[in-house]
Design brief:
transmembrane; mainly alpha; 123 residues; transmembrane helix; membrane; single chain; DUF2784; DUF2784 domain-containing protein; 5 helices; 0% strand
């Protein structure tokens, strides 16, 4: 079951990250994008007050599964883990976190602005 969950999180969480970065670009996905990126930012800065800045429940759950599968020394960042894994390099965690934060906030701002613009144009 843990192997299935590991693959599930790879697909689901990876897809969520990609959608959070790009979902603002299409009018049909903008509302759901605003919801997902809003929940992501709320998790990073809201729940993050209690669990650490940038907290993501998907990462937490996935890392629990990976620990059950025997993984050790997992970084705090899901993106760092997979960028390291995909490139074979060990990326600086502060750099990865800065890029993730910048792109995440940019996606949130773009989504908010485009949703407001779309709402105004419909009236």
């Amino acid at each position: 079951m843990n192997t299935f969950l590991d693959y599930f999180f790879i697909i689901f969480h990876g897809g969520l990250v990609i959608f959070n970065l790009t979902g603002w670009a299409w009018r049909r996905t903008r509302r759901i994008h605003l919801l997902t990126i809003g929940l992501t930012v709320l998790s990073w800065f809201g729940i993050g007050i209690f669990y650490g800045w940038g907290y993501c429940p998907c990462t937490d759950w996935h890392w629990q599964v990976k620990h059950e599968l025997g993984a050790t020394h997992l970084p705090n960042s899901y993106v760092k883990y997979y960028v390291d894994r995909l490139t074979g390099l060990s990326w600086d965690s502060l750099l990865v976190d800065a890029v993730v934060l910048t792109l995440g906030v940019l996606a949130f701002v773009l989504s908010s602005w485009l949703n407001i613009r779309d709402h105004r144009s419909q009236r």
